Amino acid sequence: MRNYRMLLAVTALVSTSSFAVGTELLPTQLALAKEQLQRLTAQTTSSFSVVDSSAKLLLVAQKPSPLDAFRPAQKQQFIASVQFNQQHLRNFDMQLLSRELTPTEIYQVLLLLDAAEYTQFCSQLARVETPLDIYLLTYGGDD
Amino acid sequence: MRLCCLVVWLLCCGAVQAQSFCQDGKNEEALYQALQQVRGIGDADGVSVDRSSLYAAVFQQCQIAQQLTQLAGVDNVTLHKLFFDLNTISFFTLDDDHIAAMQQVLREQQLRGLYVVHLAQVLYERYLVARLFPQARAIRQEFYLPPLPEFNDVTYQGRGLLKFSHQQLILTGDDSEHRMIIVAAPGCHFSQNFLAWADEQPELRQWLATNALFLLQPSLSNDLESVQAMQQQYPWLTLAIAYKADEWPQIGRWGTPSFYFHIADQWQSFSGWPSDGNAAQFFALQRQLRVSD
């Protein structure tokens, strides 16, 4: 996994012809992305307690939350896919996350579910728009 | 017997025939619903669903080829979803046209200056699995992607087969006249049920070892560890991965398990291994095969 991360990082750095946003993750951009990630994590964790049951998920979904990154129908579909087993996340629809959201949005949703370590995996086919997206795609959200 | 085979074939392929997709529209949302529809189709009657045919039907019925002619008018988000959905389709079909459609969408994303390096990686891997090496090399060079095994340093005659030798997959040519082919998959519990059943019968095991090729489809889902484990568990298997699906025209469907018997210059087949077994049908075709020798 570490090698793969390195490869993705190198790929992101050397390939300059194919993307407009954050054309290269230069050291300054890396630092900025890390800082943004820390801010985002702090904001999300201070606004929401960890969701560890379907009941809590439904409550969170009734108010503004990272789940609003989904379109309404897909939001309901994602919520229906989330399964818990004795306060542990058991399953969720990874395809839906990856198809609908950016890595940053995926990270926030997974943070809510205490599953941020899956960010990189769920982002492999996600739409990338910002340097933070590239950072999460490259390094994941659990560092 | 032919009528019997026809009935079985109709039962097995019913899932494909009964489905219609994108009846209410040919847009991204309709495509998504069609893919959800396929995703929701479960295995039944002891045979894994032939998802390749189902996804090919989605591609055709949702008129994706036509959608590709209008990419310029599609917004970035929808464009990405189209790539995502084409990736799902081509994962199962490995069809050249479906993979070319992925590339077409990727090119449009590139033209717009969108970040696509990770998507290029996915397309590169798909090219390799489909054995489209010139395209694979081109995209690897363009995006500086790490090289993956290509198995392409061997020219072969006949059909290509990937076989294990000293813990490695080796591409070999195959021009044998196979008498029986069993399309199987290590991750398919119906295939495993059949193998466990056969393994308990020394005489049958011996016959299969001599006469049957256990053929795995050229798919990413056949990860090497599970193939190796299958070979180790059943050392009597003649096991190989098909190099290219289209080199096996006698294989009408790659749903697993499917049993193909070469009897009097005709291929006869049935699919599935439900818990109560298809033993009677298997032995009947095996008898015919022996008689035809």
Automatic annotation (TrEMBL), chain A:
Signal peptide per UniProt: 1-20
- Keywords for the protein's UniProt record, in alphabetical order: Signal
Full protein name: Uncharacterized protein
Give the species.
Answer: Shewanella electrica
